[in-house]
Amino acid sequence: MTEEIIIAGFGGQGVLSMGKILAYSGLMQDKEVSWMPSYGPEMRGGTANVSVIISDERISSPMISVFDTAIILNQQSLDKFESSVKPGGVLLYDPNGIIKPPTRKDINIYKVAATEKASELGLAKVFNMIVLGAFLQVKPVVTEEYIEKGLMKSLPERHHGMIPENLKAVQTGKKIVETVQTL
Amino acid sequence: MAKELKLMKGNEAIAEAAIRSGCDGYFGYPITPQSEVMEHLMAEKPWEKTGMVVLQAESETASINMVYGGAGAGKKVMTSSSSPGVSLMQEGMTYLAGAELPCLLVNVVRGGPGLGTIQPSQADYFQTVKGGGHGDYRLFTLAPATVQEMYDFVFLGWEMAFKYRNPVMILSDGAIGQVMEKLYVTDYTPRWTNEEIAEKCPWSTYGKPSTRKHNIITSLELEAPKQEEHNHKLQAKYAKMEEDEVRYEMVNCEDAEYVFVAYGSSARIAEKAVQLGREKGIKVGLLRPITLFPFPKKIIAELSTKVKGLLAVEMSAGQMVEDVRLAAQFRCPIEHFGRFGGVIPTPHEVLEALEEKIIKA
């Protein structure tokens, strides 16, 4: 199994940290992992993206240009990365602020209203974990047990009190993910 | 030795390795994309654990001269920077090489020339392996391609630096500096005691006992014949490195008709291109130079008699390819493919370049 993922959105949405938690979870589950950020002159409100690879084998290039899954959190990122999903791959997006939805017919498309749900539940801080939950529902590349271990490993100890809230957000994401089209 | 698993950026791995390898002092000045080296050191506060000094100098020029001072005293000292900062250090590097001082230098290369960009590049190859500073000198140069190698090469770097009394350069780039991968870290190696320094580095200015004359650390010799003699000594040392210390990795080369030659992050991309090529039925392999000086000339010469073509893949307009051509003596077609100025090539582009420039040509 090798899963090549891009997570893309606005800076400040937790794109990089979501990738990090996913990578840590893979690490705890004894997978090979890589986490490669775009580190341009990004800032809050600008775009941010990270490529994460989780694999059972040695990872050749952590720098990739086509993806098994694209997790898309804004319109700019959808415009940029929709065409980079491998045929038969997965595109998961948050419809918030999306005015031109994806049009590809050769990929599986899912959506998760994470922004809406996070604000409804007053859980803005764990918005990215709702998205992560939705992804894991579609592609269970790491199991929940290891998400918890990944959180323990990636969050500084002073934030460990927030782990239950994060795990609840993962559960929420799993429940609210919707299928747009499957092949 | 007990090993602990971590997930770290390449830059952080360098810093962690410094602490765990018994480094005495780090002197540096922040610059993207290598700022995490000093950030990690400052966060870890090694001065409380091992007594290692971490100092943000007023400039790169100051940093490299602090390295000169520490190295002269037989200490394990290092600096790190990125391309424009490393240019500022060139004078210090040739002095270190001239005075035969062991030290560790790290360049996390970004796109140039000038201030360039903060994105990854490999366009500092010439500067690193062909001089950069003046005079006939060489930096022992290691090119890590993984986060684990960023860590391991700090240890190997100290070993080479003290074995040959020569500066060692870890030539990395923004991609390997910024990527997070699995990393196994080792136990702490204690820093050398003054007695150990006296024993291992009898040439250093560790304090003059009454039993010997004072040691002098200098790169100055005004009498030409003596300076020539010193140069011969340096050249003999570099020849020994070329004889004994060449390191490289080969992937899928056994039956290869075509071989990519690539180091650092380009080697990772080329390795993916090897997989893509093999899926298409192209017998392609990868030769990854690990030491850039000494350069793996012999294996390239050997490959050039066996394969139908070599493609040097670099994030530069074509630098290492010159050494590949010299080693291969044009016994087979040798071409170059590169993206530069901070642009990272895709594995598909690399494979296409092989097909266009060599297979179809």
Write a structural description.
The complex is a heterodimer of chains A (183) and B (361). Chain A has 183 residues and is of the alpha/beta class. Chain A has one domain (2-181): Pyruvate-ferredoxin Oxidoreductase, domain 3, CATH 3.40.920.10. Helices cover 36% and strands 26% of the residues of chain A. Chain A is built from six helices and seven strands; from the N terminus they run βαβββαββααααβ. Chain A has helices at 15-28, 75-81, 114-121, 127-138, 144-154, 163-176; strands spanning 2-10, 32-37, 47-55, 67-72, 85-93, 108-111, 178-181. Chain A has a seven-stranded mixed beta sheet, sandwiched between helices. In chain A, α2 links the parallel β4 (67-72) and β5. The longest helix of chain A is centred in the N-terminal third of the chain and has 14 residues, at 15-28. With 361 residues, chain B is an alpha/beta fold. Chain B has two domains: 3-195, 3-Layer(aba) Sandwich (Rossmann fold), CATH 3.40.50; 248-359, Rossmann fold. In chain B, 43% of the residues lie in helices and 20% in strands. Chain B has helices at residues 10-20, 35-44, 46-49, 60-72, 83-88, 90-98, 125-129, 147-164, 174-178, 194-200, 224-244, 264-279, 297-304, 320-328, 347-359, and strands spanning 3-9, 25-28, 53-56, 77-81, 103-109, 140-142, 167-173, 180-186, 248-251, 258-261, 284-289, 291-293, 309-314, 334-338. In chain B, the strands form three sheets. In chain B, strands 3-2-4-5-7-6-12 form a seven-stranded mixed beta sheet, sandwiched between helices. In chain B, strands 9-11-10-13-14 form a five-stranded mixed beta sheet, sandwiched between helices. In chain B, α14 (320-328) links the parallel β13 (309-314) and β14 (334-338). In chain B, α1 (10-20) packs across α2 (35-44), α12 packs across α15 and α13 (297-304) crosses α14. Chain B is globular, with a radius of gyration of 21 Å. The chains are: A alpha/beta (183), B alpha/beta (361). Chain A binds chain B through residues 20, 23-24, 27, 32-37, 39-41, 59-66, 153-154, and chain B through 5, 7, 32-33, 118-119, 174-175, 178-182, 265, 268-269, 271-272, 274-275, 344, 346-348. β2 of chain A pairs antiparallel with β8 of chain B, so a sheet runs across the interface.
